[in-house]
């Protein structure tokens, strides 16, 4: 079997089963595990899967840069943003993460809402600025251009001095076993800091993020309060999270 044929087989199996076990594929194809592991390394290098011990899981397309992510699930993110905006109550202090879904939250807030929003994303702060009843606190730090958010020690210190009622957490991957992941270690650390300072953490996850994994763990699913997903998703996509005991809200 040619290398290209093996890789096509691997990707089809990953799409079908949601995971790849290197030993099982090697036995199925009558090839060595070393050969399959080499294929997995090369496919991971192309961003087509995420290697884990013994095999691979689907890689999240949401690790692309901000401009590219704007074209991923635009309708789904709008739906999630609208649902999240309705969860905000007057007088609350809200942590709002960076990213395209967070901008949709800002755009769908009640125009008459009076609340305080804290964000480490300049883009999100600009989107919030249109709401005259909202106080906007912008967390500073080193700008991580990939996601247009502040990271580093300065950001972490500022976050530690704030207590929020609610944190809308953005992720690139949500996996029932692995947990919540993203593509940068410093960004993951800031997300953990925000979650620690919030009374409630809500994850907004569009379809392409569910069942996918990125390189850096933010936290286990058990550490969040609610996972908000699109109401139109098939139940086989939702079942693993329900079986894991995650509280799910449908947008």
Automatic annotation (TrEMBL):
The keyword Repressor applies. Residues 3-58 form the HTH deoR-type domain. InterPro entries: Carb_Metab_HTH_regulators, DeoR-like_C, DeoR_HTH, NagB/RpiA_transferase-like, Tscrpt_reg_HTH_DeoR_CS, WH-like_DNA-bd_sf, WH_DNA-bd_sf. One of its GO terms (molecular function) is DNA-binding transcription factor activity. SMART domains: DeoRC, HTH_DEOR. It comes from the Bacteria. Keywords: DNA-binding, Repressor, Transcription, Transcription regulation. The keyword Magnesium does not apply. This is Transcriptional regulator, DeoR family. The lineage of its organism: Bacteria, Pseudomonadati, Pseudomonadota, Alphaproteobacteria, Hyphomicrobiales.
């Amino acid at each position: 079997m040619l290398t290209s044929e093996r890789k096509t087989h691997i990707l089809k199996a990953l799409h079908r089963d949601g995971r790849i076990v290197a030993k099982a594929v090697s036995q199925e194809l009558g090839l060595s595990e070393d050969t399959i592991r080499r294929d997995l390394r090369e496919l991971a290098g192309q961003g087509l899967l995420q290697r884990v011990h013994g095999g691979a899981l689907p890689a999240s397309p949401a690790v692309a840069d901000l401009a590219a992510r704007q074209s991923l699930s635009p309708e789904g993110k709008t739906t999630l943003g609208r649902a999240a905006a309705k969860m905000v109550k007057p007088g609350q202090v809200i942590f709002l993460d960076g990213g395209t879904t967070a901008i949709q939250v800002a755009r769908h807030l009640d125009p008459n809402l009076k609340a305080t929003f804290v964000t480490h994303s300049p883009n999100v702060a600009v989107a919030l600025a249109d709401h005259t009843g909202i106080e906007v606190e912008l967390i500073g730090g080193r700008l991580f251009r990939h996601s247009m958010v502040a990271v580093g020690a300065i950001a972490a210190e500022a976050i530690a001095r704030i207590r929020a009622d609610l944190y809308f957490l953005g992720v690139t991957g949500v996996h029932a076993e692995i947990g919540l992941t993203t593509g940068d270690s410093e960004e993951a650390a800031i997300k953990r800091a925000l979650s620690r300072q919030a009374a409630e953490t809500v994850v907004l996850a569009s379809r392409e993020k569910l069942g996918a994994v990125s390189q850096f763990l933010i936290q286990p699913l058990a550490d969040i309060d609610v996972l908000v997903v699109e109401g139109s998703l098939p139940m086989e996509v939702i079942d693993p999270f329900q079986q894991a005991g995650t509280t799910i809200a449908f947008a």
